[in-house]
Amino acid sequence: MTNSIALADVAALLKPGMTVFVAGTGGESLLFVEMLKEHPEACAGVRFAGVLIPGVNHTDYAGLHETARSTAFFITPANRGSHAAGKVDFLPMHYSAVTPYLREHMNIDLALIQVAPARNGAHSVGIAADFVPSIVDVAKTVVAHVNPAMPAPPDCPALPASGIDYVVEAEHALLEYDLGKIPSKLNDLGNNIASLIGDGDCIEVGLGKIQAAVLGPLHDRKNLRLHAGMISDPIMDLYAAGAFASRTNGRAPITTGVAVGSPELYAFVDENPDIAFRPVTHTHDIGVLGAIDNFVAINSAIEVDLLGQGNAEMIAGKQVSAGGGLVDFMRGARRSTGGRAVLALISATSDGKTSRIVPAFAPGTVVTCGRTDIDFVVTENGVADLRNTTPHARAEALIEIAAPQFREELARSLG
User: Fold this and answer.
1) CATH class for domain 3-169?
2) Which pTM was predicted?
3) How do residues 265-297 score in pLDDT, each as one tens digit?
4) Least crowded by CB within 10 Å, which of 196, 382, 405, 410?
5) CATH 3.40.1080.20 domain span(s) along the chain
6) CATH, range 184-413
7) Using CA atoms, how far apart are residues 26 and 265, in angstroms rounded to an integer?
8) pLDDT tens-digit profile of 217-237?
């Protein structure tokens, strides 16, 4: 039976030794965040767990109390200090592996989630279908922030009201995400990526400025589909341009787990039947991805070495992010009939002093994406086709798209 509870009383549900799941991405309840910050004593001895994304989620749950800890699947600007202090247990794993881990190994005592008001006895998970639908049945206690501001997209999972133990009903602003200004070099990168995408393709593109850079040049394409972990504001212009296929046989042209962006984006998805929200167990499943013809996975990296390997999570030997769904999507694309796995990056750091195409990674740097998982590497300078190439040929192709000031030095490194 579901019970209404005052916001201040939610804090009393937390006890030392508990594992508390907190919904992340666009499903993070900023109301619950405010409550926890106002009652730091409630976080004493608590372990928080959730999938919190760099640039999107800004709460350091391990920092809410000196004895709080967290289990994290990304290192973010918010939790970097707690990670350095040894309060964050970072687990590097493919995105597709996170749900089984949460379900089978975390022993979740309490889940703090956010949903839309009930319709026909069920609450839509709204703009964040990624993990919550897979978690609520294993959590011992579920507390939902029922937020009238939360959209209820027509093709989205809903949770039976009977499966929620406590509800806090309050209208509150949703988490927003601002892409910011797109640098001109990123527009050049997007145009080069767009040269690999044709009518009828199904694309996946990572979150952030790269999503805007890639989707912008595709307005003249037809019958596109998108299957991705997250969408943000640039999807609206591409949809308005008529680039997407029609919904056919119950299949929506856009499939995603999460929407994060502006209020305009949330209004756009609220009643849009062309967007299907699905959990990570669907969006990142390699069998699902491999069954999509002409699936083009486009993801970004921090650096690529001349072997054709990608590092998407470390800078100067320090963990600054995580691999996330990169490898899931890349391998799904390579399994797809007509699929293409694309790794994208700007060729040099913003000051122009350091190449992001390197002879070899620094000692201690992880390989996020192996050379056999990558079809194309793209920079603002061009496209390197690594398919069916020898190690030397792929190195030469990568040097051709490196920043011009580093090409001679990179060539010398080949010996």
Assistant:
1) alpha beta
2) 0.95
3) 999 999 899 999 999 999 999 999 999 999 999
4) 405
5) 184-413
6) 3.40.1080.20
7) 12
8) 999 999 999 999 999 999 999
